[in-house]
Fold each of these.
Amino acid sequence: MAANAIRNKPKTATAEIFADLLRKISNVYQGDNYYWLRLLLNDHCTGDVLGKSDTTGHTLFNQLKAKGYLSYDPTDVDILFDIATVTGETLAIKLVTDFQNDYSNNDNTSYKSKYKDEKITPFRKNLLMAVKTNINPPRPMHDTYEHLLSGKVYGNIWDFVFKLERELWLTEEQPKKVKFANLLDGTAREILIGSARPTDRSADNRNGQGTKE
């Protein structure tokens, strides 16, 4: 009896185990994928960290920990699951789900059932999907904001959007959102304005049907 109790005792998460999890997930969000993370966490991380050229996903995750959005309590990783599901990265989804299931109270309840609430706003999710979907080149977009950019030209749409957001030229406010959306192609525009529902697949991911884009 005692032996069975020891074998069935839940594993305990530690700071070291959690740090390893964050490293593995941050590896998923390297290269262009890092831009997805930066955009999704614009409401959670400080601008000085987000704006540094050497900032990595691991840096952002550590700031989330410092600000209380994350801990190695397996019931306190919702924001990681939200990031994983909205980006559709199956490896990240598996890493978060396995961590929660392995270090929970061992009650045979899977993480998809414990998922409490979404930590990333619908606007931010739709902005990510709109920018990912858009096929229009970023250069013509500069013309609309030329009087604000002072001649600065951004080499990719992600840095361009980051600048607009940092200066509050692009926000969830309808006029600013529509102004930017009108520069996108039709599908991307519909996603941002709300006609399309790209984030519906998050429910599928919670049911173990995530797909990598």
Amino acid sequence: MSSTAFNETNRHIFDEATNSLASYFSEVVSESGVPTPEQIKLGLDHIFRPTSDFWTHFTREMVFTALGMSCPDWKQKVSASSAGGLSGFSVYISCELIDRILHDGLAEDFLALPPARRPSGKADVFKWIRSHLSKAGQDMMLDAIKKEGPRAADKVLHFVRLRERALCLQ
């Protein structure tokens, strides 16, 4: 596929995802006009596309565009209602997207394993994650996973389910 065709395909995927996120926010955001952290997470889950590196290319600016489409004065509302203001909200969105890059990437690697080799229990998944990152020399990611503890396995398994669900819907 040519670079131009690839970029056009990606632009379509991300435009569609941004529009879908705006629609989701329009449906679920209350009178405050600002989505809660849980609504943001659910909205991002809602728009997920099972393409490689989806979260690497879905940006904070796309989230802000979706917010602008669903709530034109969201910046003022966030500034007035959020403890960290607009800056804190922006950092939260960035951290959420980085978290998704890490855990969805691991879910993709997990699903690449033959089904018989996939660990099944949360403790075994956590052990696999640490081993996988260690073998790959991903020390910074490994440190982040160790700090998260077994909760990392829950997140990876969440993305495994999202990928499986998204593939079923295609």
